[in-house]
Backbone:
């Protein structure tokens, strides 16, 4: 018989799968009432016949009880909270000077903004600097585009004042 849960082949007559332990369908198990019984011998010497025990019980009675393991819940581990590292005003001044170095400053801003620092204050300050640089660059490009277009149109018209 094939187990409906895991598909393992089991010999007929088993109540549970030998691989996964799931109950097997009751239809394929032999019913004790349907099995052929040995014929009862005739009593001798006028004795009363011995009666066989009656099997009026349901075929599923022979199933093993399902045991459920008790659920134990461990308390959640609380990590100790470390005090936040703060940057002093002199630290902000020092980082501002460091970030103002042309190429090194941009690289350090990017490194500190995206995970190069464990201090939240430094990470937020570097992100502020990065956002400021991007905003100033966008304003600069817009300014050049507007005044460059105006200057180009003045030069192409041929009128100089």
Residues:
């Amino acid at each position: 018989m094939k187990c409906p849960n895991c598909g393992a082949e089991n010999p007929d007559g088993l109540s549970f799968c030998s691989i996964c332990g799931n109950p097997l369908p009751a239809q394929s198990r032999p019913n004790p009432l349907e099995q052929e019984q040995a014929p009862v011998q005739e009593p001798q010497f006028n004795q009363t016949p011995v009666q066989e025990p009656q099997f009026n019980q349901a075929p599923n009675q022979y199933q093993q009880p399902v045991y459920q393991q008790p659920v134990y819940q461990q308390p959640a581990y609380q990590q100790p909270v470390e005090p936040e590292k703060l940057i002093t005003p002199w630290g902000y001044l020092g980082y501002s000077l460091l970030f103002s170095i042309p190429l090194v400053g941009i690289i350090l801003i990017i490194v500190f903004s995206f995970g190069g620092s464990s201090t939240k204050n430094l990470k937020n300050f570097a992100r502020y600097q990065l956002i400021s640089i991007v905003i100033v660059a966008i304003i600069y490009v817009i300014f050049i585009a507007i005044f460059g277009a105006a200057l180009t149109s003045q030069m192409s018209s041929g009128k100089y004042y």
About this structure: The chain has three helices and no strands. The mean pLDDT is 78.
